[in-house]
Amino acid sequence: MLSKRSISLLLSGLITGACAGEPSPPPAVGKPSAPAKIAAPPPAPPPAAELPPISTEFPLQYAKTHGFSLGQPRRMTPTADGRLVLFLRSTARDPRSSLWEVDVATGATRELLRPDSLVQGSETLTAEEKARRERQRIRTGGFTFFEANRDASVILVSLSGKLYVWKRAAGKARELPTGPGVIDPHLSPDATKVAYVRDSDVYLLSVDGDASEKPLAVTRGGTEMNPHGTAEFMAQEEFYRFRGFWWSPDGGEILYQETDLSKVEKWTLADPGRPEVPPQIVAYPQTGKAHAIVRLAVAKVRAPGKPARSVTWDTERYPYLVSVTWPKNAPLTLLVMDRAQRRSALLAADEKTGNTTVLLTEED
């Protein structure tokens, strides 16, 4: 028989279920409630596959080969008759470039000159030469420049700030008595002379001169802040012009650049890795501030004592000298540009007076 408490609980459950709209199961009488079931944890994931070891071979190869660029031919220069092509090339693992030639008819290549046959050990470069190579994005050593006459019987090379002339008839190179620190050398049109820049001035030597020959000064009075014969920072970095002097077609005159850096802001650059080296003072043109003042002048090679003749144009309107061309059967031609680099003018210069005439203008 049910007790009064059991009957009360039963009636309470029936009333609650009716109010909720669904039947309520009768409570278990005399039995304990079953414990709640706990879900089993998910199975553990399988162990991850072992990664292969990281290889350092690729980054090492990439660094040692300068981005897999070593061994590629550079500065390809054909002879006037198209029979030969001169070029510079290093090996796949050596950043020092040698001078090569290829016979166009047969495809045969030949190494003409190796840098270690002229200079043993590391190269010695001036701060100016290092800056020029950086602006040209040259990362290799050895020969980085050469210049030849029309049939490549005379080839001029520079190495470690010195000049050498290689002659095909002799099959070997000879050092010219220039002294150290030479930059930007160029053969005369007839390949009998070579002009170059040293200590901020332009000098001249005979290709066939002996070791006692003294260089002839084409310009005088050049300084670090007023150099002669070199391209300024803007020309090199913005316009990819690295020449600062040019031979006339007949080899009797040299057009050279005069640069005034006195108003350009000076920066002091120190090498934290070499604190024993004195800081370097560099004239760096900044946006909105003073830039270099560029002028041109023509010097007589056969009359070095005669005053140079200035080549003039509207430098206030066109302060940038972009390029220079002195062709054989046309006037001396200049391409100049304004400071905003939106307007350029092509000028023809009168070689006798130095006056210029505008041939055409372009505007962006």
Written overview of the protein:
The protein has 364 residues and is mainly beta. The chain has a domain at 56-175. It contains four helices and 23 strands. The strands form six sheets. Strands 1, 2, 3, 4 and 5 form a five-stranded mixed β-sheet that branches. Strands 6-7-8-9 form a four-stranded antiparallel β-sheet, with no helix packed on it. The protein has a four-stranded antiparallel β-sheet with strand order 10-11-12-13, with no helix packed on it. Strand 3 (96-103) and strand 4 (109-113) form a beta hairpin. The radius of gyration is 39 Å and the shape is extended. The N and C termini lie far apart (110 Å).
- Total beta strand runs: 23
Residue stretches low in confidence (pLDDT < 50, at least 5 long) are 14-21
Nearest-integer average pLDDT: 87
Gap from first CA to last CA = 110 Å
- Net shape: extended
The major sheet is characterized as: 5 strands, mixed
Task: List the total number of helices.
Answer: 4
The proportion of residues forming helix, as a percent range, comes to 10-25%
Q: Cα-atom Rg, whole angstroms?
A: 39 Å
Strand content: 25-35%
List the helices and strands in order. HHEEEEHEEEEEEEEEHEEEEEEEEEE
What is the structural class? mainly beta
Please specify the SSE layout and strand pairing.
Blueprint: H1 4-20, H2 57-64, E1 74-78, E2 84-89, E3 96-103, E4 109-113, H3 127-135, E5 141-142, E6 146-148, E7 154-159, E8 162-167, E9 172-175, E10 183-187, E11 193-198, E12 201-206, E13 216-217, H4 233-238, E14 245-247, E15 253-260, E16 266-269, E17 280-283, E18 293-300, E19 309-311, E20 320-325, E21 332-337, E22 343-349, E23 356-363
